[in-house]
Specification:
The chain is mainly α. It has five helices and no strands.
Length: 136
């Protein structure tokens, strides 16, 4: 399976990895990166293969349904619906990650001896669990 340049699926994967394994960078940098990626994706032509590939991934990896930035392919009737939801998720990504980071930093300031990431990971996992529960 080869993804085309500009593929929504590839960009969603990048955003999901950045959310799941964040590096301690300036949240403004993340926001700029996600915004640029969303704008570039919106400007690229519709790729009907994105929905086909997303469905293929979902058939062998049910955990994809718990990933909050991947549209639920079961809810997408066609490529346009998938693209619309994927673009909305890309746009939401920076705010979601920045919000979790701010919350983790607030928790960190109240618990000496722990790192921000000790708080971020449970917040991220809770977001995954909430999305999985919603989709089930």
């Amino acid at each position: 399976m080869t993804l085309l340049p500009g593929s929504l699926l590839a960009r969603l994967l990048i955003v999901q990895v950045c959310c799941d394994l964040p590096v301690p960078t300036d949240p403004v940098d993340d926001e700029s990166c996600y915004s640029t990626m969303a704008a570039a994706t919106a400007a690229s032509p519709v790729n009907a293969a994105d929905l086909k590939y997303a469905r293929a991934v979902a058939t062998f990896d049910e955990e994809v349904f718990a990933l909050p930035f991947f549209p639920d392919v079961r809810e997408c009737a066609d490529s346009a619906a998938y693209r619309s939801e994927a673009l909305a998720n890309l746009t939401e990504a920076s705010a979601a990650v920045a919000g979790m980071r701010r919350e983790a930093e607030a928790l960190d300031s109240n618990t000496p001896g722990k790192f921000v990431w000790d708080h971020f990971i449970p917040l991220r996992d809770a977001k995954h669990a909430a999305e999985a529960a919603r989709r089930l």
